[in-house]
């Protein structure tokens, strides 16, 4: 079996290699000025896991009912906290065939959801979506997760939310 090479001799696109260092693409001054940051070099640093919850909740309401509530802070003047979107993964189900459970993500006192995920399965299913929060001002904000059903009982269990800067 040939050896596995973990790092190519040619660095991946948008990364720093020997040639970039020799050419002066990365200098102490550029790092000090913020032109070169870890988040620009490593895409995973552009997001942060801000919450996760595995508490099972349910509702029989046909109108949105708040089932989970969380706070987060956004600062438009600090690059590392100037969130643009929220990536959401949620798991839900209904107990009656032919019905729909809908998970809604609301921010602050909003009456319309920024994101809706719908489920028709009678066993837990997972969906994901993205909510735009680029218009939020600096400050503490509330995420309200709400659940409704078209009939029977809707259940929501697993929830993950990740804040993304770009």
Question: How many helical elements?
Answer: 3
**Proportion of residues in β-strands:** 35-45%
Q: How many β strands by DSSP?
A: 9
Going by CATH, the architecture would be Sandwich
Compute the average pLDDT. Answer: 84
- The global form is elongated
Q: Write the CATH fold name.
A: Jelly Rolls
Reported for the largest beta sheet, the result is:
5 strands, antiparallel
Kindly report how far apart the N and C termini lie: 41 Å
Query: Helix proportion of residues, in percent?
Result: under 10%
Order of helices and strands: HHHEEEEEEEEE
Poorly predicted regions: 4-8
What number of domains? 1
Radius of gyration from CA coordinates: 21 Å
Determine and state the CATH class.
Mainly Beta
Secondary-structure-derived class: mainly beta
Describe the structure concisely for a colleague.
The chain is mostly beta strands. It is built from 3 helices and 9 strands; from the N terminus they run αααβββββββββ. The strands form 2 sheets. Strands 1, 2, 4, 7 and 9 form a 5-stranded antiparallel β-sheet that branches. A 4-stranded antiparallel β-sheet has the order 3-8-5-6, with no helix packed on it.
